[in-house]
Amino acid sequence: MTGSSSGGSPLHRAHPYTPLALAGALFLLAFAVSTPRAVGLVVVAGVVLAAVGGVLRHVLRPALVLALPTWGLLLVLHGLLGADPRVVVGPLTLSEPGLARALVLGGRIAAILVAFLTALATVSPPRLVEAMAARGAPFGLIFLLVSTLTLVPRMRARAAQVLAAQQCRGLRIGGSPLARLRALSPLVLPLVLGALAEVDEQVLALDARGAVIGGRRTVLHPPPDSALERVLRWGLLLGILAAYGAKLARGGA
Amino acid sequence: MTLRDLVLVRLGVAVNLVIGQIAAALLLPVFLDAVGTILVAALVGPRAGIVAGLVSQVLMAALSGNFSWLPFGIVQVVIALYAALAARLGAFARARTAIAAGLGLGLVAGSVAAPIAYFLFGGATAGGVTVVTTTLRVLGAPLPVAVAAASIGTDVLDKSIAFALVAAILRSLPDQMKARFPVVSR
After folding, report:
1. Which among A223, A12, A209, A21 has a CA at the least distance from the CA of A130?
2. B3-185: which CATH topology?
3. pTM of the model
4. How far, in Å, CA of A25 to CA of A28, rounded?
5. ipTM above 0.95, yes or no
6. Of chain A's two ends, which shows fewer C-beta atoms within 10 Å, N or C?
């Protein structure tokens, strides 16, 4: 839906952990607050983050596409079908507490989407891998995150080939739900069994390259991590702990 | 975890990400986004299954852009633990026992997902589950009941099909390959 975009903004230049920490902090903060106004402030913070990263346009469209169906359902579930008292909003008569709850929930979803889509747009995957390796992340974790992304398109292409081959052999993928369910097995089995048959070959290839599960790589040019960024990340952690402390003090509300 | 386990986990993650698309292409009302987690947990064990499930959840969010799915990662952990236990008990030996175990997982996974959907998202998590929730709510069911019924109902169908698929995959493995996985070769 979206991905990393090139740019020279402060978020693009920052250590990859910093935009991720900011997104994670907004995610946690969205659940620490529970009034429409406070959630609205978290959404604004997310939008400011996207603007600082120079990716506001890049982020807002996919965020709206993803959030709109959920907002619509929230309006129906809580606004239209919520408890009394009612309030008139334009042509609609909505539940007042339901509308407040829908605003909080819809705002949370918007904040999460904007924050993480910003991180996704400003963090370059190769720089993230370098940063993880430099921080001593084990080979296994980096292999799983990066290598799987190369495997998925190959498996998708193979799934399309299996589908075409089975259709040539007379498989029908339309009809009743039961008929479509029956078509699942002839499509999934060749795909998964074929992939399982290649496991040994891949293990040998990794072994030949000296891959070790817990092994650490030495990175030639690790992304720079300034003291200011490290302070910011620790500050975010303390801020989140304070927000949840305040939430607990209010009795979880 | 060995290199072999790591390669199997990677395969499980890819299966989770791809099979859901096949289900969507067949217009089936299920997600099938945990077939890889169940397969890896059955073949290798709960730890590898949990890693496959959590990495899948992160990559699904990153590839779709929908990061509001992240809290449901806990459901993948439950699925991995349950599938590993079911494999140990021989549930994948026959289609009938696999479907029965899948029904059980549907109840468990739905019961774990429902509170997340209700408390964190007010029952609106998008997709088919929320359409069922809204329909039940329109019919007069209280919101917590509608969320729980929709979540458990869809999970029971989804996980019983996923378990049946994994049982079919495990039964179709060549003997040479089965011998490498103690749980399957028993």
Report:
1. A223
2. Arp2/3 complex 21 kDa subunit ARPC3 (1.10.1760)
3. 0.85
4. 5
5. no
6. C
